[in-house]
Amino acid sequence: MKRLTAIAALAVVATATACGTTGTTSSGGIYTTIDGAKQIDASAPINPFNPQGSTFVGYDTMSLGWPKNDLMNPDLFYPGLAGSWSATPDQGEVVIHLRPNARWSDGKPVTSKDVRTSIGLAYTQGGSAYTVNAGAAGAAADVVIVDDKTVKITQGANRSNAFLRNVLSTVVVPDHVYGGLLPATFWRTLQDARGTGPAADKAKTEITGLSQKVITFSPRQDVSAGPFVLERVNPGAALLKRNPYFYDAAKIVPDKVKVLNYTGNEQIWNYLVSGKLDSAPFTAVPAAVMARIKATAGNEIRKGYSPVAASMAFNQSRKPYDNAHVRRALAYLIDRGQVTRVASPEAGTPSIATTGIHGSAAKAWLGPGLAGLNPYNVDPAKADQELRAAGMVKRKGQWGFADGKPWQVRLTVPAEFSDWVAAAKSITSQLNDHGIDASVTTSADYTLYLEELASGKLDVGFWLMALGPSPYNIYQRLYGSANGWSLLAGRLTHSPPGKDGNWMGGPEKIGGVNPGELTNRLNLATPEEQKKIVGTLARLTNEQLPVIQLYDYVNTQFVNTSRYTGWPPHDSEALRLPAGVWMQLGMIEKK
Amino acid sequence: MKLSATRDGTRDDPAEPQAAPVAKKGHPVRRRLAGHLVRGLVMIWVVTTISFVIIRNIPGDPVRGQYEALIERGMSPEQAERATAVLYGFLPTGTLWEQYVGYMKALLHLDLGQSLSTPGTEVTTLLGSAASWTILPVLGGTLLSFLLGVTLGVYAGIKRAGKLGDLLTISGSLLHGVPQYVLGLLMLAIFTTLWPILPAGGPVDVEFPPGLNGPYLASLVQHATLPVLTYALASYGGWVLAMKSSVATVLGDDFILAAELRGLSRWVLFRYVARNAILPLFTILALSLGMLFGGAIFIERIFNYPGLGLLLVDSIGARDYALMGGAFLVTTIAVVIANIAADLLYTVIDPRVRTGGAA
């Protein structure tokens, strides 16, 4: 018994010690946050090329620049490791000037060789500017070290206006840690891969074969050029300490950053309610929980632009959704304001009109043209007209097909997305009130939902859209692979409904316009041409309604003013970037 | 057809004519163990095969899920497509039969493959890491609830006509009826929000360097308190009720009456009752210990405790075939081992089993 008492006493003392020491640090304090992009996995290597890697963008993972998420111009960036850059008007050549005082956390300078190695590693992962696919638009053709701090990157013959932003998004890792992953013959192999024929194919396979080696690479310790460097990670959190060699070290206030792990929204709510987080990305929050979060001392909300919208999307290969009149009728029956109030009162605004673009960006892209588009305000009479025009018949107060078959609207959403479930219930309730037999079904999880959607099983579902700021990304969502258009080796092809993931099932041409082709041109067009194309696609989307845009998301972030101040203001372009970048921009100060 | 167990664990069919006794080689316990091992291996193979087929047939495309996740994080469609293509390299390809043969061959080399959700990480590494966080808290919770439940269950059985007995029975029924996740959420709300004296999530505070130092160990204890307590409370009710019922049965046995007539002391009587009543609970305990390798899914989820249960749930969400298979395999092996251990333990603690039921 005595032994038990002693053990218990020791545990109490030790617990008290832990309570006493938690959080006590030197002047800058520990900045506590959440990485909204991923959950922490302590087993993952300290490697930014690993999607689950134990590195954190903006803190210890650095890129050449940080996107500003401008409404219309995706080429606007804050300087990162690149202090400045220049590009020819056609983006054929981009010259990067590294910050002269940039250094790695082991004291070695960041040089052009690091950038070149990082680009080489990016080639093994493929995509964006660094693809070995012959004919791919926007691929880098040459990487030249001009001097220790200057790199010139040339675009291949098939130009894309995404080249500059793809280059600036390059993650830079130290050559003296990662360089060994690239064989000595890598750049020669890369040249071979750009050709055609068996030798090129062999070279491509060789480069792609390196991808797993790069992803699985696990350095023993973090070597960072960012404001912080990983000290340790466990399954519950990651701890980063200041990098004394960071080029703008004077701007960085916290001594450490603690990134807490989460497995579900409720954990983030709990952290917020207990006032633990200095900042956190938005998660869907029930009204009661939101009230408690707001009641916690210091908690505040920052709101800004977020280029994402929620929509109701149709499988047009299913009847009656192949008929634009039916889609329009449904649009006239849905009160988007009510849907937004029910589903996302804090982080959404009712969509002005279905344009394919987020409301704020639509104003910038379309100007006065936006007013000319149909807002589809609630109008049951117009809905009836449209349904009759589609050949639907109302019998005993219920709408059905002309041949007497009943019409049942089955709106499917993933069960785990509470705001979508709430929105879907609001919509079906409104449709039921108008004599349309509508109900909500749920898929067990998002992975299953996506498969059911892609396989054409679902009639109507929810779909994220308006993923700007690049206009190509915005419209690729509506007139890309989900609607049958795919880009292979620079050639755009269209698959029929139900094939190759074409679940939207829209026609290839609508009134002589091929929206997939127009979307693809957005990547190549000049700003003036882009405006014209966006105008055409917005009008077409508004008339045809491949989706009904319901609510545009608002970037809603939580900050706590108890320990730090100097947060990005509302509508700041920096709001969508991690807090580590805010610090780099000199935004976070100790209270 | 009724089968009866013989002393060496083999079974005889009473309907069959009695054959001449055959001399069996080796120690009976060793033969018994060998039989268990063979049956256990067959069971593991069967369960592994069934779970392999089920896992491969779970609807949901992990590649599409990964693509969407990257798009929603702001990646361009081409970047996301390429990134998922790289990840796709980690997925098994070929026909189901080819995959099965490959999987079984790898298993023979103790290779459970690589995780898709944590690319480049061996499944065994992830399982090992999760197991280290699961075993101690769940083991602690199980043993705590067992000791508490069994001890109080004896009192509840003996004093079942009194207020204390009623109180213990009610507490058992109440806690047995409350689902684990409700209990977990209540504990979370009470001890992390209303009266915030314990941490809400994670296994240990990352600020403390790992090792045998006071703050680190204290932080471990702090973080494990709520999961252990929740697990113990959630299981306590079952033990109390089972023990009470077992005690009530034993109290009616002739040997207890005989003991009372012999005027044995209450303490000796208590030992008689407890020792006999606890026997059936040992099997449940052994199986519970085997099941602890499946983790306490709800509790780990609520407290963000990175054990095997949480790993299994996450792997299902990500359709991480290799990880799911590995987690199921570990649970299966643990349950099989627990079964064997329970059987052998029974042989040791129950003389009736040792003598083939003839006692």
UniProtKB/TrEMBL annotation, chain A:
This protein's UniProt keywords: Signal
Pfam families: SBP_bac_5
Gene Ontology terms: cellular component: ATP-binding cassette (ABC) transporter complex; periplasmic space
Entry superkingdom: Bacteria
Signal sequence extent: 1-18
InterPro entries in UniProt: SBP_5, SBP_5_dom
GO molecular function, one term: peptide transmembrane transporter activity
Domain (Solute-binding protein family): residue spans on this chain: 78-484
GO terms under biological process: peptide transport
This protein's name: Peptide/nickel transport system substrate-binding protein
UniProtKB/TrEMBL annotation, chain B:
Coiled coil (residue ranges): none
Disordered: region residues: 1-27
Sequence intervals crossing the membrane: 33-55, 135-158, 178-198, 278-303, 323-346
Membrane topology label: Multi-pass membrane protein
Residues annotated as domain ABC transmembrane type-1: 131-346
InterPro entries reported in the protein's UniProt record: MetI-like, MetI-like_sf
CC terms in the record's Gene Ontology section: plasma membrane
CDD domains in the record: TM_PBP2
Main location: membrane
Record's subcellular location: Cell membrane; Membrane
Family: Belongs to the binding-protein-dependent transport system permease family.
Record-given protein name: Peptide/nickel transport system permease protein
Gene source species: Sphaerisporangium krabiense
